[in-house]
Amino acid sequence: MKRKHLVMILLFLVLCLGSCQKSGKAFLNDTKKLMDTVKGKTFEEIHELLGEPDAQLSGFFGDVYSVSSGLEIVFYYDGNGIVERVLTSFVK
Q1: pTM for this predicted structure
Q2: Could you tell me the CA-to-CA distances from 12 to 15, 16, 30, 44 in Å, in that order?
Q3: Cα–Cα 20 to 30 A to 51, which of 2, 5, 26, 72?
C-alpha cells in the first residue's frame, strides 16, 4: 500500500513538472509533498519502494532516480540512513 502511495505521488510530480502552465510556487508545493511522504523512511525502504537507484552520490549518502525525460529525484540520507532531504532537478 505504501509503495503504491509513493509511486502515485512520484507520477503526480512528474506530470505536474511536465506541465508548462505550472507555476514555480506549485512546483515547490509538489516537492514538499514528496518530502513529507518520504521523510523518516530509511534508504532500505526507499529502495524497496522504488527499486535500485540509477546512481548514487559521491561524497554524500544519497541516491539518484531518473524519472523521465531529464527529471531526476535525489534522496539525501543522514548518517543513520534516514531521508533528510529530497531534491528534484532537470538534467540536459
Answers
A1: 0.67
A2: 5, 6, 8, 23
A3: 26
